[in-house]
Amino acid sequence: MNRFEIIRAGINTTFQDDGRNHLYHIGIPISGVMDKRNYILANSLVGNKIDKPVIEFAYQGPLIKYKGHKINIVITGDVIFKLIKKESVIEGNCYENYIIEDGDQIDIVSTNKSVYGYLAISAEFDLKSQWGSCSINTKANIGSNNGKKLQNNQKIDILNINSNQVKKKLDYINTRIDRIRVIKGTNFDYFSDEGKKIFFDKEFTVSKLSDRMGMRLEGPKIKNIVDTNIRSEGLIKGVIQIPADGNPIIMLSDHGTIGGYPKIGVIISADYDKLVQLSPGSKIKFQEIELSDAETLFKLYEIETQNLISQFK
Fold it and tell me: How much is the CA Rg of the chain, to the nearest whole Å?
């Protein structure tokens, strides 16, 4: 029997994959990984199909003991971790895979000036999917593992170890950008000219009230001149709402599917990975772009991701 034993679960450790589609009409968001590129790279580095479930962790990660046959593992993101073997301790490098054996431990100490990291294995976790996905939404108890975070002393069976145990390494650095790019939201004209200018010219701070559901920002207040509430309507990942207090809220992967706050903008898909890696206390500035430019930037993002994956084929 091949399995992981979770000695320390970490702060927010879950199974995630690409998420589940076509369920907004019953109030179920897509969920799925927060940082899609790091997810795809993790699976690629251990020879998996890119849509296989992985372990996503935030801030402090898990301490895991492995039992079984040799297996290939990799960690992606900006993460401090080490491999504890019988006769040595190896300081791990992200984007480099490692062979672990029976009795080895993986100690994911923390993310480094970021939020999310990913652990992929050259095998399959023994998980039950729900509505076509293993992704866990802890707010609604949806997904594998009964919709809950991983727990201390939990055991996870591992199936179908693949034969890909070739050493691979990717020289990749998670970069930041000066401004998060947005397109105008459907309620952009609800806000005063001064409020719009503040939104694009001033700096905001990521608050501690941020999780997989949403990111709250603090900073200069954005004034609404029409109505601080609207009839509830559909939301999407990355949309920026402005409640009555004037502080922006960005909807993230586990967001509610409807909401009644006016929407000033939407984060472009090409910048979403970088947005979610901003830890509390980080500064954000927004830059307006047109929809056509956002589409072009997403195509370039996908091409760059595919170019990185092609290095492992």
Answer: 20
